[in-house]
Design brief:
Distance between the termini: 16 Å
Structural class: alpha+beta
Strand content: 35-45%
Number of strands: 14
Low-confidence stretches: 1-15
Shape: globular
Mean pLDDT: 90
Strand order of the largest sheet: 1-6-7-12
Length: 257
């Protein structure tokens, strides 16, 4: 609820119908927190719980945008993660190459596109403070319409504030769902019920800044077959594809219908 109240109270502007909401990014940089995880990994549940705890611990949407990307490379050991996608494994490997990391692993946290191993300690707060203190190098706006069946209608736009980023910058969109859980029947977590939040299941991008410093996209993003829109939402971020640096991020939970 804290995420909903913050965004609806601070970022919404203009008259909107029920089931519609709008958000715009702040002037400061918001940190993108990517958790690469798997239900087939017995060291991942603590990281999943940590990601879920960020909002209650005061890391509001003005500070961080958390997402959980489930990878598929642990599926072979006995349990197929129902949220895992090969494209998330590919993204993890590509970002590792860009930042010259020797390996990919789970659980892995990327902060602003870079490996961050101190996520469980006090170093995370200091790192987020430094990121939040920087002026944003891109501005993002999202409008979300939840009235359609089985999909979110999303209007997204982003504008670069730093023209030097144009050649490599791109906009990414994703839908997520929270309050999910799985009863694992095999593998390293056999017999455990695993809760998840901010699980990404649809992904759009990279959307390039071809015509100038601004890019816009209107897209229908399908929901999970059993999705609860009240626990779902959309995230957007602008990232430099050459060095993986995130220029700005924005989270918009679904509005009441």
């Amino acid at each position: 609820m804290r995420w909903h109240l913050f965004l609806l109270g601070i970022f919404v502007s203009g008259p909107l119908l029920a089931g519609q909401c709008k958000a715009r990014s702040p002037e400061n940089t918001v940190a993108l927190v990517e958790l690469y995880t798997s239900e087939g990994c017995d060291s991942c549940p603590p990281a999943d719980r940590w990601l879920s705890s960020l909002g209650p611990r005061g890391y509001g949407a003005d500070r961080v945008v958390p997402i959980a990307l489930h990878v598929d490379y642990w599926d072979y050991i006995g349990w197929k993660d129902p949220y895992a996608q090969a494209r998330f494994s590919s993204r993890q490997r590509k970002l590792a190459q860009l930042t010259r990391s020797a390996i990919v692993y789970t659980p892995q946290v990327l902060l602003q596109g870079h490996d961050f191993r101190g996520w469980a300690g006090g170093g995370f707060d200091e790192a987020v403070k430094r990121i939040n203190a920087r002026p944003a190098r891109a501005a993002i706006e999202l409008t979300l319409d939840t009235r359609g069946r089985g999909a979110f209608q999303v209007d997204a736009s982003a504008e670069l504030k730093d023209a030097s980023q144009r050649a490599e910058a791109a906009l990414y969109l994703a839908t997520y769902e929270g309050k999910l859980s799985s009863r694992v029947q095999a593998g390293e977590n056999r017999g455990k019920t695993l809760p998840h939040d901010f699980v990404v299941f649809e992904w759009v991008g990279p959307l390039e800044f071809k015509a100038g410093l601004r890019v816009s996209e209107r897209v229908a993003l399908p929901l999970l077959p059993s999705a609860n829109p009240a626990h779902s939402g959309v995230i957007a971020f602008v990232q430099n594809r050459a060095n993986s640096e995130v220029l700005q991020a924005l989270l918009l939970p679904a509005c009441p219908g």
